[in-house]
């Protein structure tokens, strides 16, 4: 732990995807001193590094924050699990390994909202900078810190899915992150060989030998300390002792779309009425902090297969699982290299759209009662349907003035009619795809919601009663050209000098896909912006 009087050039809160990128890039020249504060510990748990281990650690009491959402009538009055990583690598250490770029129009829309320098042409170099994709190809990076690989094993069922996609008029793409995003493709993973490569392994661990970088683990950030309108450091608690880590140049919050707005509010930066209700004296009345929460809501459909040879359900339980463990250890293949999304179908369900409005993911495993980690005894597979650009907006707000207490997370899923309509269209597309000629004799029928759910009303009721998050919270401390938006286009908090936010919370709007690749790219660009400002 640094001494009470120790000062750094940069103090970063959070060793998740963005924080790891910043720690590496800002300390690379050997001159700037960097401290990274992480509430969790080192990524030593073995399930982190086994790709399929995600199913066992999504709600781990030590590796995650174990967040729950506020119950909402629009999703059956349920409090949903809301996993966020609390470990080196953050959520990149517990996620499904999917590496997916957004549609170019996602980022061009950001630029149109006043985020100068954040259009697709501006961000593409940063996508390429972080990638190490051996497959290469147009616009792909081949020498970055983050390894990206195709699936180690492509199940036979996925080949039949590809043929079925073509049968309903959708293209099949060899590279899901290539020039064409619409259509069917197999996933790419943040993996090297048999092991997950989180942002911690890609960026943070290689930089640990630098004397100008310190990682302060198992430390709870209590608040950003602001003096005379400037962020001067972060107060942390570790082993029961409070310490102020001072920042010469600036503080960067990379605690994620839940943690960053929460810490700002604990620091007196946020909606003044919300702060006052918890006895926190406002340092800056910033109504947009914690608002605009966006996430992808997923409805999972289960289908029965005619034969176990198409499904992995029996392969992931003992005693057959022992064979898979040995296979993973000796060849780097098998079901332990799998992730929840093995393939993806991007499609437009309405005419006139500039980008896909539905994404369907899945693989040849089906879960009993939809519970991830508990496979069905019969052969099956799961398809998850979600709307790419939801209209519903939620919030992250204080529940108490204590940093240890989770905030009130209210995604407000399916509170807009357009979102309800889109999820129904997506479920109907999934059914049409599974009924295509190439899958006859392979797909035996639909189990959940089942053929009795035929009307739009029945499908929507199923989605509301059983769906959940895809783990993509974002947009809660957004950037933009409007002076009322929390951040400017250089990710600086308006109204407080020396304070930036760099993580998924800065997105003006959620991209059409899984978000980790975009977070890495935003952090790569942010590191350049910070270095430029430091040089003056």
Automatic annotation (TrEMBL):
The keyword Flavoprotein applies. Residues 256-270 form the Glucose-methanol-choline oxidoreductase N-terminal domain. Keywords: FAD, Flavoprotein. The keyword Flavoprotein applies. Its cofactor is FAD. Gene3D superfamilies: FAD/NAD(P)-binding domain, Glucose Oxidase, domain 3. PROSITE patterns: GMC_OXRED_2, PROKAR_LIPOPROTEIN. Belongs to the GMC oxidoreductase family. This is Choline dehydrogenase.
